[in-house]
Specification:
By secondary structure, the chain is mainly alpha-helical. The protein has two domains: 277 residues, Fic-like fold (Orthogonal Bundle); 59 residues, Arc Repressor Mutant, subunit A, CATH 1.10.10.10. Helix content is 59%, strand content 5%. It contains 15 helices and five strands. The strands form two sheets. The chain has a three-stranded antiparallel β-sheet. The longest helix has 23 residues. The radius of gyration is 21 Å and the shape is globular. The relative contact order is 0.14. The mean pLDDT is 91.
Length: 347
C-alpha cells in the first residue's frame, strides 16, 4: 500500500517526460556549486526572502493567513506577540524551516523527525506532534454547501504502522536504488499525503519533508527559492495531480507519475529561477528593494498595487510604493487613478 513499494519490484518504466526532468535537474545540480559562490549579498537576500515566502505560502495554501502588515513582526521579531492561532502557526513553520536550513544533515527521515516538524508547525495545540486519533477523510467542499470525499485516508489505527513502513521503505529504496532518488522523493511525498497521518497540518509537513529530502540528496535550490511559493502559484495543478495519482492508491493500482512529474517540475522551476536570479548583473540594491523588484517581475503584465504588496510579505506599504514609484516611466506605467488603479509593465 505505497508507491515506494511499487518500485521495489522493478516492474515499472519511467515515462519520457520524467526522464527529461531528471536530466535537467542533474545538470542544474552539477552547476549548483558554481552559482552558490556568486555575490554573497545577493544570496543572503535570496535566503531571507525565501524563508519569509515559504512560511507565508505554505500556510496560505491551507487557508492559514497573516495580515501582510504583520508578517515581519511575526516572522522576524525575536519574541513576537501573536494575535491569533494563524500567526502562531506561520511562525512555527518558520522555526521548522530554520531547523532544516541549519541542521538538515542531522535530521534523518524518521518518525521522530516527522513528529518534530509537525509539533513546530502546530504550536501549542493539543495534538501537535501526535498522529491522528480518529479517522479523517479528505473532503472537498463547494461554495453551494455540497461536498464530496476526495480521498479516504489510512485509518487512525493503522497510521503508526503505515508511517513506520514508509520511513523504512525510504531508507531501503535509497540503499538498494530501487529507482532514481528524485523519483523516490516525490513518491514518498505522495505516500505521506495519502496516509495523511495528522488531524491537521499534513500538507505543511509534507512540504517541509520535501525540502529536507532535497537537502539530503544534494539539491539545494530550496535554500534560495521558495518551493512553497512555487507550489502555491501552481496550486490547481498540485491538487489535480495529487487527486489523479491517489486514485487506486489503497489497492496499489494508482498512477503515481502525474504527481511525481509535478514535484520534479517544481524543483526544475526553482533551479531555473535561482539561476536567473544569481546570474542577473545589475547595480546593487538594498534587500527590501530587491524583494519588491523580484516580486514585480513575477506579476502579470497588468497588476494592482495591492497585488504587489501581497507578493512582498514583510515589506512595508511605503517601501513597496516607493520602489514602484521609482520604476514609473521606466519599466511600468500607471493606467488609472486611486488605490485600485491598474499598473502595466512596459515592453
Amino acid at each position: 500500500m505505497s508507491t515506494l513499494s511499487l518500485f521495489s519490484t522493478g516492474n515499472y518504466s519511467v515515462p519520457g517526460g520524467t526522464s527529461w526532468y531528471l536530466a535537467d535537474l542533474g545538470e542544474f545540480r552539477g552547476k549548483q556549486e558554481l552559482y552558490t559562490h556568486q555575490s554573497p549579498q545577493r544570496l543572503k537576500t535570496l535566503r531571507e526572502h525565501a524563508l519569509i515566502e515559504s512560511a507565508v505560502s505554505s500556510n496560505r495554501i491551507e487557508g492559514v493567513t497573516v495580515d501582510p502588515q504583520r508578517v515581519r513582526d511575526v516572522l522576524v521579531s525575536l519574541k513576537p506577540l501573536f494575535l491569533d492561532r494563524d500567526e502562531e502557526e506561520v511562525r512555527g513553520y518558520r522555526e521548522a524551516l530554520t531547523l532544516i536550513h541549519g541542521h538538515a544533515a542531522d535530521l534523518s527521515i524518521s518518525e521522530e523527525t516527522v513528529l518534530q516538524l509537525h509539533r513546530l508547525t502546530r504550536g501549542e495545540i493539543w495534538d501537535a506532534g501526535c498522529y491522528k486519533s480518529k479517522d479523517g477523510d479528505i473532503i472537498e467542499r463547494y461554495t453551494n454547501g455540497s461536498h464530496r470525499v476526495r480521498f479516504r485516508t489510512v485509518p487512525a489505527a493503522e497510521t503508526p504502522e503505515s508511517m513506520g513502513s514508509l520511513v523504512s521503505e525510504w531508507a531501503t529504496c535509497l540503499e538498494e536504488r530501487w529507482v532514481h532518488p528524485l523519483i523516490a522523493l516525490a513518491a514518498f511525498n505522495l505516500d505521506f499525503l495519502c496516509i495523511h497521518p495528522f488531524r491537521d497540518g499534513n500538507g505543511r509537513v509534507s512540504r517541509l519533508l520535501l525540502l529536507l529530502q532535497c537537502y539530503h540528496l544534494g539539491y539545494e535550490a530550496g535554500r534560495y527559492i521558495s518551493l512553497e511559493r512555487l507550489i502555491e502559484q501552481n496550486k490547481e495543478r498540485y491538487y489535480e495531480t495529487l487527486e489523479q495519482s491517489s486514485q487506486g492508491w489503497h489497492e496499489n493500482e494508482h498512477d503515481p507519475w502525474p504527481y511525481i512529474n509535478f514535484v520534479l517540475y517544481i524543483l526544475k522551476e526553482a533551479y531555473k529561477e535561482f539561476v536567473e536570479r544569481v546570474g542577473e548583473i545589475q547595480a546593487p540594491r538594498g534587500s527590501k528593494t530587491e524583494m519588491v523588484m523580484t516580486a514585480l517581475q513575477r506579476l502579470p503584465v497588468e497588476f494592482t498595487l495591492t497585488q504587489l504588496e501581497q507578493a512582498c510579505p514583510g515589506v512595508s506599504k511605503d517601501m513597496v510604493r516607493r520602489v514602484l514609484g521609482g520604476q514609473k516611466g521606466k519599466t511600468v506605467e500607471c493606467v488609472g487613478r486611486g488605490p485600485g488603479a491598474k499598473w502595466k509593465k512596459k515592453g
